[in-house]
Amino acid sequence: MHSKPFPYPLLFWISVGAAESGGGVMNTRELIEYIAKALVDHPDQVKVTEIEGERTSVIELSVAKEDLGKVIGKQGRTARAIRVILGAASANSGKHSVLEIIE
To answer: Between the N and C ends of the chain, which has fewer C-beta atoms within 10 Å?
Structure first.
């Protein structure tokens, strides 16, 4: 089973998403939600919650059971890629962000 490729570069997706949400910069929770919804077959079942600590932010991602493999990917490659993007996005805020994929 193949994942749907992004038809445009990720930065385009982020800027379009920010424009659709009223402009401005997309926060990390919105970014993870946007990426997850693009990967899964059931985007309506994507749920992202953020638990903010003093120096660390935990982002919990929950998807439909049948979409879990699409978010994790072969040998965890997709999940690792999402975490790299999250790390780059959160570097500007000075906060460390952690992604937890809820089964």
So the answer is: N
Q: Are 17 and 6 in contact (CB under 8 A)?
A: no
Contact present, 79 and 99 (Cβ < 8 Å):
yes
Q: Which two tokens stand for residue 81?
A: 């890629």
Distance CA 57, CA 40 (A): 24
Q: What's the CA gap between 41 and 64, in Å, rounded?
A: 9
State yes or no: pLDDT of 44 exceeds 80. Answer: yes
Topology of the domain comprising 10-102 = GMP Synthetase; Chain A, domain 3 (3.30.300)
1 pLDDT exceeds 70? no
Tell me the whole-structure pTM to 2 decimals.
0.76
